[in-house]
Write a structure and sequence with these properties.
By secondary structure, the protein is α/β, with parallel strands linked by helices. It has helices at about 15-30, 45-50, 55-65, 90-100, 120-125, 165-180, 195-205, 220-230, 240-255, 295-305, 310-325, 345-364, and strands at about 1-10, 35-40, 70-75, 105-110, 130-135, 145-150, 155, 185-190, 215-220, 235-240, 260-265, 275. It contains 12 helices and 12 strands. α1 crosses α10, α1 packs parallel to α12 (about 345-364) and α8 packs parallel to α9 (about 240-255).
Length: about 375
């Protein structure tokens, strides 16, 4: 297999975690006889510094014409005072819109080795947490009409969804649930919002195509409460852009560390997907070799599985991460109070350990 991957290191710890993820991909290529070619892409704050634009057209084109995109993180306080349309986060919206990525898949998994890092009681987490949040990416309030009155005294942001946008993301949620525990939760605010009522109307229309999947609706405020009250009730959650943004971050914390969670942003399959850790750029620890690269490494597993149909290779990466955790190796964010000091390692060492575990298992 010969594939091209557009690589966006981004800002803050992005370049550090991307380096380790590419290291793991190179090991996969060597072990499974694949060729990965990396195309560098500049986006986010680094692109503002270099080009005065968070996502220049030529950089977006590199992504569109690749087979998959791997992203580190963008943003930081350095760019807090730039114009809203030039903020680093505009690169994310530009990538999603330009690449037609309408679905963000965010697995929220409590690794058994990190159970002590979970802030919830054992009686709540039971035998583990395994939730897939499917977030709509290209509609809703983030892409709706917005503005600020000339006098600066009022502002507006508009939530807008079409039936087409809702149906495609809800069907993806149903399909994902079919491959898991066959439970789908649609999260909305249908008691208040007309857009949420349309979500329910569309879902009701198509649910008959999935008679094997149990469907429930929850208002977003109740869903946020239920995530900490009884997270094991959830299998797949599908929701709007803003609600998914908020709930997926909440889910990341109940699993112990945002540094462990990967994500995939997918379109209709005619173009590349984009893969990234859900954590931010963490500029306060950038360059210190302390960032956790495991979420980015796990994102490469999703890349291999969803974009390249390399299930064995993806599973090998995931097993390697488990073996490293089983051996007690931890970055600071997942160390916990019981971790021996000599087992706390940095970004580069964690990447090296995953490569070593991956290589050792494949050579057995």
């Amino acid at each position: 297999m010969n594939k091209t991957i557009a690589v966006i290191p981004g800002d803050g710890i992005g370049p550090e975690v991307i380096t380790e993820a590419v290291k793991v991909l190179d090991a996969v290529g060597k072990l499974f006889h694949h060729q990965f070619h990396y195309v560098p892409v500049i986006a986010g704050g680094s692109a503002i510094d270099q080009f005065g634009n968070p996502l220049p057209d030529d950089q977006l084109d590199r992504c569109i014409h690749s087979d998959a995109v791997l992203l580190g993180a963008v943003g930081g306080p350095k760019w807090d005072d730039v114009a809203p349309e030039l903020r680093p986060e505009q690169a994310l919206l530009g990538l999603r819109g330009g690449m037609k990525l309408y679905a963000n898949l965010r697995p929220a998994v409590l690794f058994p080795q990190l159970k002590a890092a979970c802030p919830l009681k054992d009686t709540v987490t039971g035998d583990g947490i395994d939730i897939l949040i499917v977030r709509e990416l290209t509609g809703g309030i983030y892409f709706g009409d917005h503005g600020l009155d000339a006098d600066g005294m009022s502002a507006w942001d508009t939530e807008r969804y079409s039936q087409h946008e809702i149906e495609r993301i809800v069907r993806l949620g149903f399909d994902a649930a079919r491959g898991r525990k066959k439970r789908l939760t649609v999260v909305d605010k249908a008691n208040i919002l007309y857009s949420s009522r349309l979500w329910r109307t569309v879902t009701e229309r198509i649910k008959g195509d999935y008679p094997d999947v149990t469907l429930q609706y929850l208002y977003v405020d109740n869903a946020a409460m239920q995530l900490v009250r009884n997270p094991r009730q959830f299998d797949v959650i599908v929701t709007s852009n803003m609600f998914g943004d908020i709930l997926s971050d909440e889910a990341s914390q109940i699993t112990g560390s945002i540094g462990m969670l990967a994500s995939a942003s997918l379109g209709d399959g005619t173009g590349p997907g984009m893969y990234e850790p859900i954590h931010g750029s963490a500029p306060d620890i950038a360059g210190q070799d302390t960032a956790n690269p495991l979420a980015t490494i796990l994102s490469t597993a999703m890349l291999l599985r969803y974009s390249f149909a390399c299930n064995a290779e993806a599973t090998a990466i995931e097993r390697a991460v488990h073996r490293v955790l089983d051996a007690g190796w931890r970055t600071g964010d997942i160390a916990g109070n019981q971790c021996a000091a000599e087992k706390i390692i940095g970004t580069r060492a964690m990447g090296d350990n995953v490569v070593a575990a991956l290589t050792a298992e494949q050579e057995q």
